[in-house]
Amino acid sequence: MKYVVSWTNRETGNAENEAKRSLAVFSKWTPSQSSTFHQFVQRVDGEGGFAFVESDSPEDILRDISKFTPWIKYEVLPVVDMADGAAIGAEAIEYRDSIS
Question: Is a pLDDT exceeding 80 seen at residue 69?
Answer without folding.
Answer: yes
